[in-house]
Amino acid sequence: MAPLLEMKNITKIFPGVRALDKVSLRLEEGEVLALLGENGAGKSTLIKVLGGAHSVDSGEIFIKNRLIKLNTPAQAWEMGISIIYQEFNLIPELTVRENIFLGKEKTKRRLIDSADEKKRSRLLFDKIGLKLDPDMLCSDLTVAQQQMVEIAKALSVDAKIIVMDEPSATLTTQEVETLFSIIRELKEQNIGIIYISHRLDEIFEMADRVMILRDGIHIGEENPKAISRDRLIEMMVGRSLESEFPKHHSVLGKEKLRVENLVVGKNVCDVSFNLHEGEILGFSGLVGAGRTETMRLIFGADNLDSGRIFLNGVETEIQNPKDAIRNKICLLTEDRKGQGLVLIHSCRENFGLPNLKKYIRFLFVDKEKERNAFDSYINHLKIKISDHESMVSSLSGGNQQKIVLAKWLETNSDIIIFDEPTRGIDVGAKYEIYLLINQLANEGKSIIIVSSELPELLGMCDRIIVMHEGHVKGEISDPTAATQEDILKMAIT
Question: Which pTM value belongs to this model?
Fold first, then answer.
């Protein structure tokens, strides 16, 4: 039988970059094909070609042996292709139902049939176990809710091919299980799924076949049941890694940070903990546990209702991020695009934003000095950019995260808070970030890691604090002797 989808010798060239070099892909009905590779390997470019967002320079696309041309997303929809992109494509000012049916509206007496949209939205939500008001504005949704809306939006099209680009990156363990149930149901309906994820556990659980890209080239295909995790990583990054999590030999110094009885509404309830020099402290918990809200209080992004913050044993008032930066505290936010970067600015400008005092000369920015400082981080962090003035929006997720890292490292902060530092980042880039975190801790910096990836916390941290509904529920004092189940038991009770 003819494959559901064939992409043959797809080549795509951007100015100065060959993003795809004669890449071929095959997808069968009812199959989950995992598409793997480092950030910048060409995965997103390939699915944008399939979704009609990019035209090809050469190559052919067939659906059931029929040669097709995809020049617009609308043409892809018509051919039964639905894409769930890693970066959300929701319009914040529109409601949930308006986003789901945007471009596919039905009218009644020349007006959009909102009642029908509500009804169909609720049917879609029932399929994915989502309880949500279709008339809520997308700007009021959490990141996890936005991801589930994207899934509902993809299912709203009568799709035969669905591409999921990092669909689980913002989901809780329970929500991931719901996602997997949806995928199994779609397989039974003979829908072909291309699944992109940097979480290898998901690949081994869900994928029927694995295809690896590296530097825009098709490296090979494997049966996930017949290949080891280490070999898969080696194919992706082009080299072997000693371990997924580099060892950190901690030597703890004096207490650097202590917070007592932090409270803000119902999100953070009487939270207390301390942090030492050279320590890597992890924070775990389900979505809504209050981890991010606690970090925003320490950074001054939100105001305390009550509580005290001590730095080097001295009570310190932090009313805004400017106070935090002055006290050598920095926060790498969970949402790097929305809060960590200014997408309409260049890489150099984003790097310089929190460091402008260093580069101001006679009321003007000394761009040459700024570039020279940026250069050292480009080399040290292996940031892949064509030019200092490249728009940061054009970079892969891993390189965007490195820009955020670079700008905060230049502030020479003593306390560095990483909120989901490796979300949407490939295993090779993750390893480099882990090495950097270890290096910072060895230099005496105090590190906090907020992460939804339990192996990451167990592999990287000296201690782990577990939160549930705004409260600290417990502490893992020796992560080497703990399991993911130990953390989850605290997180859900």
Answer: 0.66
